[in-house]
Amino acid sequence: MSTTAPADQTTAKVYPPSPEMAASAHIDAAKYEEMYAASIADPEAFWGEHGKRIDWIKPYTIVKNTNFEPGNVSIKWFEDGTMNVSANCIDRHLATRGDQTAIIFEPDNPEEDAQHITYKQLHVAVCKMANILEDLGVRRGDRVVLYLPMVPEAAYAMLACARIGAIHSIVFAGFSPDALSARINGSDAKVVITADYAPRGGRQTPLKSNADAALLHCKDTVKCLVVKRTGGQTTWVEGRDFDYNELALEADEYSKPVEMNAEDPLFILYTSGSTGQPKGVVHCSGGYLVFASMTHEYVFDYKDGDIFWCTADVGWVTGHSYIVYGPLANGATTVMFEGVPTYPDASRFWQVCEKHKVNQFYTAPTALRALMGQGNEFVEKCDLSSLRILGTVGEPINPEAWNWYNDVIGKGKCPIVDTWWQTETGGHLLTPLPGAHALKPGSAMKPFFGVQTVVLDPHTGEEIHDYPCEGVLCLKDSWPSQMRTVWGDHERFEKTYFSDYKGYYFAGDGCKRDADGDYWITGRVDDVINVSGHRMGTAEVESALVAHASVAEAAVVGYPHDIKGQGIYCYVTLMNGVEPSDDLRKELRTWVRTEIGPIASPDVIQWAPGLPKTRSGKIMRRILRKIAENDYGSLGDTSTLADPSVVDDLIANRAG
Ligand code: WT7
After folding, report:
1. What ipTM was assigned to the predicted interfaces of this complex?
2. In whole angstroms, what is the distance from residue 185 CA to residue 55 CA?
3. Is 593 known to sit in a ligand binding site?
């Protein structure tokens, strides 16, 4: 289903770590083998030890208490320990690195000054934000929605919630007012934190007015805290809206971190699945932080003094774990970039690397493909000599993009860590370690410590022990940053992840495992597509389309797209009497953007007088995918269709 079929492993070139890298990295090949074996042989002992990498108020005595059995799924780590995430990310560094930069903020506009925020300054800012939230009535366990640009205040707000025990739920600033109100209501949030505008790529998204529109559909007790980013005009509702910058002037500079249980929720993050509306993935405090900080250190070979840059947005899990929580728990310097890779031009990423002397750079294959197409002169004019480790995430990386990353960006001397994980997993599950593994372009390589990946036969549900093999990717046992539940719907949690293959966590991806035991992700095996590294449920786009008055029925599938990985291909059946037209196509595209957000924009809309259905009325998506992929040779058996002629019509009128 992925556009990037894994390379033929027998012929692929292999890139072993350089002797210097193997010698200097935290983990070399022998150490990986030893630690991995120990982590599987005795998870209690392994995590009992590594759980100590963060500070506990009351140390845990119970390490692991997890159950994947359908009907009784329950995941708890370090359950009798207490701690505070914010204190771990800030306070414990104050004595040793108070004047070290915690966050480098690089604004959208390169003419605007970057900000260097030290751990001491971060402490003050987070305490102030915590006090402001408490003054607005936020208490331990309450939900706070963040709808913010990539500004330091986003990190302050996350850490302030963690400090007082509130649960944050970040909504990516590219989402529409409808998506925002659904998430505010879904978690019954007390406060929404937003900004006047979000500058991005030279344009400005009117976040506050989006929030105003969303709040029309929320309880009138929900308060809105507004960060001034551009100073642009906004409307103001007295009694509901509060000015963060004004309140911060007066707010107290100290707030005591609340003693939280390891299993108290830290955040909710909505993500798309194959059915229904997005679900609120719940992550808890202790296990999440242990795993995020440990993967950040080992996967990126982070060392004291390094400058770490993850280009994600805090609206996605990558931003949670590898811009904020992992790096700050490790006392790192983390870069927060507000802009986009191609503004003002295609050298922006590389200029930022040069300007801030970035050592670890972590981005998505879609960004690399877009930049690769712009030509190497944008890279060559920048000094990238500070780079030591490169990383990718979000989708399989095609060998061309991998080679470009390796040769042109890394100059052949920076290992590339291809990290496979999910919103649900909280941190990296499959990845090479820079000093340990011989890299293969396109392979996410090996399980991280404590991670028990298995390949199952999709038909029998049995584990496949052969090498090489192909099947569905599952997890045999828990790891500390596994999601704990779906917010408000534990049954959906069990049904989504634990019911297809009994006794396993089912990730939704297919994979191959080669003769060396290295994993190659082949893409989603469900009705989820991966657009520019963002997960999109086809059902979500379909329900947005059918909400339009002219649409009778819609079926959405992914198709290969050069830059995005997968594009969104929509088959639309119009209401009786409605005439298809290019204007209507445009209107539907705009409609989906306003219903969900620009990331859900249909790439192709094909008018479909009929959809291929079985006699029982089930849409045969397999056929629609083949047509969208322009692959008619392998349509398979169409004899079970209620009306096989529908397929000929769709092929004859294939769009694009
Ligand atoms: C899905 C999870 C984890 C943060 C970004 C996306 C795909 C992710 C890789 C990779 C191949 C990958 C999978 C996964 N995916 N990383 N390195 N190689 N596929 O998080 O939105 O939760 O999506 O992204 O299909 O299931 P997400």
Report:
1. 0.99
2. 34
3. yes
